[in-house]
Predict the structure.
Amino acid sequence: MVTIRVCIGSACHLKGAYNVIHGLQRIVEERNLGEQVTIKAEFCLGECTKAVSVKVNDDPILSVDENNVKAFFEEFVLGRL
């Protein structure tokens, strides 16, 4: 099981956090990975300068936007399944 935490704090919200969440949800649904991937919205991961801040399991926080969400998923999530 992989858990993806997406910050929805002020800076991340303004930078498109909900677009990132929706993009991740769409990818998980298209690939039928609902049993293996959990997406959680969290208020402030403490890395506002990296907005939209995303954390996979307990790894370091990464910066994701709606334009690179697919590449992010393929690079940082698929290999863990």
About this structure: The chain has three helices and four strands.
